[in-house]
From TrEMBL:
The lineage of its organism: Bacteria, Pseudomonadati, Pseudomonadota, Gammaproteobacteria, Pseudomonadales. This is 3'(2'),5'-bisphosphate nucleotidase. It comes from the Bacteria.
């Protein structure tokens, strides 16, 4: 379950991209 703070991040898409890159590394 994602935290409300995480959902409220304006760079939500950017964070998701970072997580995807880290997962692929």
């Amino acid at each position: 379950m994602l935290n409300p703070f995480f959902l409220a991040l304006p760079a939500n898409a950017a964070w998701r991209d970072k997580l995807l890159v880290l997962a692929q590394s």
